[in-house]
Amino acid sequence: MSLVNLRVNGVTYPVDIEMGRNLSGVLRSEVGLTGTKEGCDDCECGACMVLLDGQPINSCSYLAAQAADREITTVEGLANGDEMHPLQRNILAAGGVQCGFCTPGMLMSADALLDRNPDPSDEEIKIGLSGNLCRCTGYARIIQAVRATAVELNVSP
Amino acid sequence: MTVTEVTAEELPPFVRADGPDKVTGSGRYTADLTLTGMLHAAFRYADVSHARITKLDVSAAREMPGVLAVITDADVPDVHYTPVIADRTLFARDVVRFEGEILAAVAATTPEIARAAAAAIVFEFEPLPVVSDLEAAMADSAPLVHENWDGYEISGDTIRDRNVATFSALTKGDAAAAMASADVVVSSRYVADASHAAPIEPRAIVAQWEGNKVTIWTSTQVPYDARDGVCETLQLPSNQVRIIVPHLGGGFGGKCGFHFEAHIAALAKAAKRPVKLVFSRYEEFMAPDRRREGMIVDITTGVTTDGTIVAREAWLAIDNGAYMADAAFFPQLAAMHVAGPYKIPALQIDANLVYTNHQPSGSVRAPTAPQGCWAVESHTDELAAAVGMTPVDFRRKNLVATGDEGPVGQTYDEIGLLECLELAVTSAGDESALGENEALGVAVGWWPSFAVPAGAYAKMQGDGSVQVITGAQECGTGAVMTLRQIAADELGIEPTSVELVYQDTAAAPQGPGATGSQTLLNHGRAVERAAREIAQQLKELAADRLEAAPADIVLSGGVAAVTGTPAVSIPLSELAAEAAGGDLLLGSASAPVPEYPTLQGSQCVGDQGVASWLAPQFSCHVAKVRIDPDTGVARVLEVHAAHDNGTIINPIGAHGQVEGGILMGIGQALTEGTQYGEDGKQRNAAMLEYKLQTIADAPAITTQFVEIFTPDAGPRGSKGLAEAPNVATAAAVSNAIAKVAGQRVRQLPMTAERVWTAMQSSSDEGGAA
Questions:
Q1: One domain for residues B267 and B316
Q2: pLDDT in tens, A75-131
Q3: Which residues of B touch A130 (CB under 8 A)?
Q4: Which of A39, A106, B195, B615 can bridge B449 by disulfide, Cβ–Cβ 3.0-4.6 Å?
Q5: B665: nearest CA partner in chain A
Q6: B422 and B371 together in one domain
Q7: Which stretches of B46-161 are assigned E, i.e. beta strand?
């Protein structure tokens, strides 16, 4: 067991963990943030996507120890207090949420995409979210939500 | 009849009550729960498809530090269960019949210790011959999956014989004689591989005992079925078992039925601690008895030279897998899909559900329909070609319309199938505008509505807020969210003023849950009536105050007023406050089952109750497909859908169901197929090898609804809509592929390899289709 400092959504959590533990598991149990989901434990579904120093990673296949002392953002860190992030608001308004299990990972990938490309084309949105599986929707409403968010953020950054 | 088409951007907003939980991460799914003292469960699976158990020794596992309980068949009541044929026990007994059969369950302080202990269980066995091929399984000499097949208890009109678990036949007229009179006869064989529901959330269960009562949090679509399964197998009265479903991460039928709740409850009792089970993705593919069934369809149709169908004969074999999950009705339902929504004067379809040593099959979204529709609609294009008609003209001539008699003698009230055909075809546009290696494929589909009893409570509290307590289960569709809207409309208030209490068997009256597209149809009728009871009470209170008759009171915008004089009104909150000091505003209702239509002139042998269709749902999908001739990779560029699903109450939810159903249908068409080794085990039980559609694969989808008020159906003439969109897509894709490839691909999924192979044989034959 080793003591590791994980900095999640701006808060530092000292956690005592085995070095082989994956980040998603530690976020969900020791840190206590269950918004990050585990769908396959194999980098195939993207439900566990979080941001590490702003880059999207599949936290199921990333060692928690490797994330020590870096900035981790989970879905719980997207909203500004009680005010939803525009991506959260727009994906609901567009009908892009059904069962919601892929949604946290989808939102994190979308947030990272808009961070590096504030005005993505539909094709670029598809590439940016291609690591996130959704079984409920036809994806179109998720694309629509990302597009609407880009417009909204570009008008009032 | 009205036709509605709206683009995604124009849909009225319908923000789900569960939406904020889901987008902020605050919502709890079952795997997110942790209880004090909670242990972790692991199963030891047979990992062999057919074998006689010669040794099962759990003593070493029981001795491992951190292990608090190991249970097997010896530790639970001696009960054979499952609907229709009681062929199965919770834990393996004497013989294992598929790789995912559970030998033992372990509860330990960590998941790692639980898995290590499960692996330490000694299992020795004598291999038995693996039954894998459907036709071989039906031979008299075939090894039996269940040696004691005729010793199991059965219910209903169930016909069985050795490895044939259930048999059903649909008969109308003299099909053989009518076939002999046909000008043109076309015979086809289509074979569908098994596939999976594959929800993104792997299932999870947490069980906790307090005294003689157990509370089970579980990712089920059907809380009452889960409860009844626990009660049956652990022999508990229903008031000692409470099922609570946290947010559910998708189901698609995969989480219907009773699965592992009893195993975990028994484990928690033995360990005297709460126990949690979370499936891996591999387990989610391999263990549940809810696989989409593989199927062989042999179909022969006779037509006249002018393209009129005169007779159809078909033979079906459907892979049931090792145990009866809920597939007993699949033969009859598959036969209905292979008959199709056509005017067929003479029909004979014999359908067999066949035991194999595969994972059991069960109701995955529109069971039997995507495969049956794919077979019959591919065959229909072959018929059209045989008589020199276009696929659309052939369907125009033979599809059922309002007042027509269908293939098993049901006469239809107002239906919109032909309208769906015209709308979808028009939306797809002219074939002359297509690019190279592109084609449009057309297919129609249908699906029944299943009416069963359901109940609901409603109450308006002293401050005018409303609670609706329902046995409905939200699996993602948003149908439960629609119940808020139904209650709100009855009471003349905003949906946001209605709180739902749901997914808890201790709180709500019985109902089917999220299965068979029934939420709106059944729970909706109950909620509508319960809310209406409160509306009536409010009208009586308002009538006193406004000196009018209750019948003249209108509830709208949160106030009660007399018809025609909206200026004089009373806020409902005022009436609610008054009632809080006297007769409380409480409503309760159940939804009686409407009468099913009668069938004329047909016979149903082995009747499982799915030949007469209440409020049938119709659809037409047109797929625009491009094939890369070098690789055989088919891409679906566009799908144009038109649906008759009755009145549409929640447009954004309705569009979401159609779009999601189409995407799942494209997966079934192109990439989703389970491969079995000769050992009977799945070879691609992982998401890289079993490929779901990604966002990059998603086509442009247009959806139109032919809205017909349907009597004896759901609230306001609605029908269900969860399964219908999953019926016709694979067939439409098939018909487009055949046009480009010049050859039929007769196995589902139509993978790149299969498409490429068909194109090679087509060019070998000089391109003859």
A1: no
A2: 999 999 999 999 999 999 999 999 999 999 999 999 999 999 999 999 999 999 999
A3: 694-696
A4: B615
A5: A138
A6: no
A7: 51-57, 67-71, 95-96, 102-108, 122-127, 159-161
CB atoms A141 and B8 under 8 Å: yes
Q: At B768, is the pLDDT very low, low, confident or very high (cuts 50, 70, 90)?
A: very low
How far apart are alpha carbons B462 and B572 in whole angstroms?
10
- Interval B607-664: pLDDT, tens: 999 999 999 999 999 999 999 999 999 999 999 999 999 999 999 999 999 999 999 9
Q: How many CB pairs under 8 A join A and B?
A: 168
Same domain, A19 and A46: yes
- Are B643 and B747 in the same domain? yes
Residues A62, A21 share a domain: yes
Q: Given B199, B652, B656, which is nearest A135 (Cβ)?
A: B199
Cα distance from B133 to chain A (closest Cα, Å)? 30
Q: Is the pLDDT of residue B339 over 90?
A: yes
pLDDT digit string, tens, across residues B56-107: 999 999 999 999 999 999 999 999 998 899 999 999 999 999 999 999 999 9
Interface contact B200-A47, CB threshold 8 A: yes
> What does A8-61 look like in DSSP terms, one character per residue?
ETTEEEEEEE-TT-BHHHHHHTTS--TTS--S-SSSSS-TTEEEETTEEEEGGG
Unique residue bearing structure tokens 């608001």: A89
Q: How far is CA B106 from CA A138, B54, B57, B103, B627, in A?
A: 39, 20, 13, 10, 50
Res B10: pLDDT = 57
Are B567 and B517 found together in one domain? Answer: yes
The model's pTM is: 0.96
Q: How far does the CA of residue B647 sit from the closest CA of chain A (Å)?
A: 20
Is there a contact between B623 and B639 (Cβ–Cβ < 8 Å)?
yes
Burial class (CB in 10 A: 0-12, 13-18, 19+), A49: buried
From first CA to last CA, the distance across chain B in angstroms is: 39
Closest CA to B600 of B412, B445, B373: B412
The predicted pLDDT at position B767 comes to 43
Question: Is B22 within 8 Å of A135 when comparing Cβ atoms?
Answer: no
Residue B280 touches chain A, beta carbons under 8 Å: yes
Contacts of B138 (CB under 8 A, 6+ apart): B163, B164, B317, B352, B354
B219 neighbourhood in chain A, CB within 8 Å: none
Condensed to tens digits (0 to 9), the pLDDT of residues B524-566 reads 999 999 999 999 999 999 999 999 999 999 999 999 999 998 8
In tens, the pLDDT along B219-263 reads: 999 999 999 999 999 999 999 999 999 999 999 999 999 999 999
Q: Which residue of B has its CA nearest to A142?
A: B695
Find the DSSP H helices in B368-458. Answer: 369-386, 391-398, 417-428
Question: At what angle are helices B330-339 and B369-386 packed, to 10 degrees?
Answer: 30
Q: Are A72 and A96 in the same domain?
A: no
> Are the beta carbons of A135 and B365 closer than 8 angstroms?
no
**Alpha-carbon dihedral sign for residues B684, B689, B694, B696:** negative
Structural domain boundaries, residue B91: 33-128+200-250+256-286
B20 at interface of A, judged by CB pairs closer than 8 A:
yes
Strand B466-470 to B498-502 pairing: parallel
Q: In the predicted model, what is the mean pLDDT of residues B374-382?
A: 98
Count of domains in chain B? 4
Together in a domain, B82 and B113: yes
Residue A63 is part of which domain span?
A: 2-77
Q: How far apart are the first and last CA of chain A?
A: 44
Q: Complex ipTM, two decimals?
A: 0.98
Residue B403 domain-assigned?
no
Contact B622, B640 (CB under 8 A): yes
Mean pLDDT of the residues in chain A: 96
Both B480 and B511 in a single domain?
Answer: yes
Select from B385, B417, B412 the least CA-distant residue to B398: B417
